[in-house]
Amino acid sequence: MEYNTVLFDLDGTLLNTLYDLHDSINFALRTLGLPERTRDEVRMFVGNGVANLIDLAVPDNTAGEIKSNCLSLFREHYNANMANKTRPYDGISDLLSALRGHGIRMAVISNKYDSAVKELCGKYFGNLIELAFGAAEDIRKKPAPDIVNKALDALGSEKSRTLYAGDSDVDIKCALNAGVTPVGVSWGFRDVSLLEESGADYIINNPAELLDILEL
User: Fold this and answer.
1) Looking at 81, 111, 132, which one is the last position of a domain?
2) Cα–Cα dist 15/88, whole Å
3) What pLDDT shows up at residue 1?
4) I need a labelling partner for 64 at 20 to 30 A (CA). Which of 80, 96, 102, 192 fits?
């Protein structure tokens, strides 16, 4: 199969966003007098959108109003601080440049809220990434296939010629639900064993290995 399209997850795949997410979560928790979380805890909470991130970060049985306040505080802080410590993983910029040079179509699809996805992609990748889609009210979050379908429609690409690279079981399941080929990346927020168990067709240990799958 000759692939001509690659979809990427963002957090834990293209960008190491963990430090800024951790800082913003703990800012919100601390402001409300709630217990703070470790970086490893936040690493395991990320992947299903910010509302779910807050649900997991606050103590059990936290009132809905407090959760809502925590979410608002988190978003306000994160919007102002999302690029303090966030960086592309080693080799990502070179990979994207190589893919673009070979005419590979690319898009980012993320459960992070849409405005943050677009801002981060614009800041770190400029015109290397054609399209970036984050969570929106009119589309189901991953692992539902909706965001994959939206990206492929926008790119004019076929599922049979598409790879989807991500670091979590949510990404692998999303790819399988959408009928595209799932590629797990080992450098992100989840263990390789989880990617394997979820059904990844490929596991790569550095970004350049994606070029081998594409035979570039």
Assistant:
1) 81
2) 4
3) 67
4) 80
SS3 content of the chain, % helix, strand, coil (to 5): 50, 15, 35
Q: Any idea what the CATH number is for the domain that residue 68 is in?
A: 1.10.150.240
Give the helix ranges, DSSP H, for 58-113: 64-81, 92-101
CA proximity to 147, closest of 179, 175, 115, 109: 109
Q: How far, in Å, CA of 90 to CA of 43, rounded?
A: 19
Instruction: Determine the structural domain holding residue 44 and report its residue range.
Output: 18-81
* Pair (147, 50) in one structural domain: no
pLDDT value at residue 104? 97
Q: Alpha helices, DSSP H only, in 126-165?
A: 146-155
CATH number, residue 102: 3.40.50.1000
- Kindly list the averaged pLDDT for each block of 10 residues, start to end, along the chain of length 216: 94 98 98 98 93 96 96 97 98 97 97 96 94 93 97 97 97 98 97 96 98 95
Looking at the structure of the chain, the number of domains it has is 2
**Residue pair 48/189 in contact by the 8 Å Cβ criterion:** no
